[in-house]
Amino acid sequence: VPNNSIDAIIVSSDWLNEYKRVGEKKFRVELQDLFEKLKGHRVIVYSQAASLSVDIRRYVHKLQIVAMEKPESLEVGADNLTAVNTALREETSKFSFEFIDITQLFSTGDKCVVAKDGVFYFWDKIHLTLAGSVLVAEVTQSLLSGIHSEQPRRGPDKPAENRNPLGDAVMVRNLDGTIR
Question: pTM to 2 decimals?
Answer without folding.
Answer: 0.71
